[in-house]
């Protein structure tokens, strides 16, 4: 059987092809285009389709896929808020995801963003390229002794917390369930309001659910310290982007690091450098000197991508064998 993989990055393609070849059961055809309503007809005749994190798997797209003979979706990500699971269930499709991969990739990148905005790394690098070696405007702060607020203390949040502990920071956490490993590190669990008002650095590590959509809204932003650092390496929809722009225009926040953006679909992973920017909110965010925006690359390490691909290969094997695992979303 040949599997059709959408949204495959250049670095990712040889890893996917090698993994499926090593499994020795199925072939894979890799496309760099993303799965959307316009590209879904390409999958006609493919029983198994693999999708990337920014794929459009709305009901309309799923019905197009099912009409072309697709019976299984193997998403190469942990998040699945882009998939209409109810429609997939009604169509009798199997849907899987990657429930686990290296948490260190995202946690380390979140800290990379935090330190980049704290120590003005982008500004400093741009200056030195022009042989401007002045230090004015580059002063940062020690992280040691300051307070970090970790919103979401699962595997990635725990890895982020361990790094914060290494910096010698005071640890605040919020989650629906306390992580004993974080408590052992000295984390104090508090409500969101106390975390927002007390933290010098707030990092987001919760999934995007109906209950967490815009968890960082205007009210939450106003609670935070004027000189706080905010980092989001989880899902763009956790932050109300327009409210964030409003607060940044008011001169608030020491720095903001964003690896995700709530309207990133159709933008991230693509080259838009020769096109007019239609998203005014994103265009405004990028112009702030204390904001660093990257293109959803926190997971993008050889280790994590390798684990994602290996799990995807196993998910396909499970589907063919009629097995379900912790990665199977539909059927439950």
TrEMBL record:
Domain D-isomer specific 2-hydroxyacid dehydrogenase catalytic: 12-328
The keyword NAD belongs to this UniProt entry's keyword annotation: yes
Keywords: NAD, Oxidoreductase
Gene3D superfamilies named among the record's database cross-references: NAD(P)-binding Rossmann-like Domain
Alphabetized InterPro entries for the sequence: D-isomer_2_OHA_DH_cat_dom, D-isomer_DH_CS, D-isomer_DH_CS1, D-isomer_DH_NAD-bd, D-LDH-like, NAD(P)-bd_dom_sf
D-isomer specific 2-hydroxyacid dehydrogenase NAD-binding domain sequence ranges: 112-298
Entry similarity comment: Belongs to the D-isomer specific 2-hydroxyacid dehydrogenase family.
Protein name: 2-hydroxyacid dehydrogenase
Organism per entry: Streptomyces flavotricini
């Amino acid at each position: 059987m040949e599997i059709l993989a959408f949204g495959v990055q250049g670095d990712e393609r040889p890893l996917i092809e090698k993994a499926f070849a090593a499994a020795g059961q199925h072939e894979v055809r890799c496309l760099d285009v993303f799965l959307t309503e316009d590209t879904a007809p390409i999958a006609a005749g493919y029983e198994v389709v693999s999708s990337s994190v920014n794929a459009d798997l709305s009901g309309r797209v799923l019905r197009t896929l099912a009409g072309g003979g697709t019976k299984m979706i193997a998403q190469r990500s942990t998040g699945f808020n882009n998939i209409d699971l109810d429609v997939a269930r009604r169509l009798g499709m199997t849907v899987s995801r990657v429930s686990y991969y290296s948490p260190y990739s995202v946690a380390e990148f979140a800290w990379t963003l935090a330190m980049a905005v704290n120590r003005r790394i982008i500004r400093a690098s741009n200056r030195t390229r022009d042989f401007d070696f002045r230090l004015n405007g580059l002063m940062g702060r020690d992280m040691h002794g300051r307070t970090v607020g970790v919103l979401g203390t699962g595997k990635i949040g725990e890895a982020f917390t361990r790094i914060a502990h290494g910096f010698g920071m005071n640890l605040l956490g919020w989650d629906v369930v306390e992580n004993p490993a974080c408590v052992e590190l000295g984390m104090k669990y508090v409500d969101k309001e106390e975390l927002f008002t007390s933290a010098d650095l707030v990092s987001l590590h919760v999934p995007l659910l109906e209950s967490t959509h815009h968890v960082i809204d205007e009210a939450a932003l106003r609670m935070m310290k004027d000189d706080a650092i905010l980092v989001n390496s989880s899902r763009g929809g956790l932050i109300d982007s327009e409210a964030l722009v409003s607060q940044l225009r008011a001169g608030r926040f020491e720095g903001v690091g964003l690896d995700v953006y709530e309207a990133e679909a159709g933008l991230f992973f693509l080259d838009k450098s020769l096109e007019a920017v239609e998203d005014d909110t994103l265009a405004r965010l990028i112009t702030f000197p204390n904001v660093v925006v990257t293109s959803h690359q926190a997971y993008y390490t050889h280790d994590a991508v390798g684990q994602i691909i290996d799990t995807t290969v196993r998910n396909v094997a499970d589907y063919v064998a009629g097995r379900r695992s912790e990665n199977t979303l539909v059927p439950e």
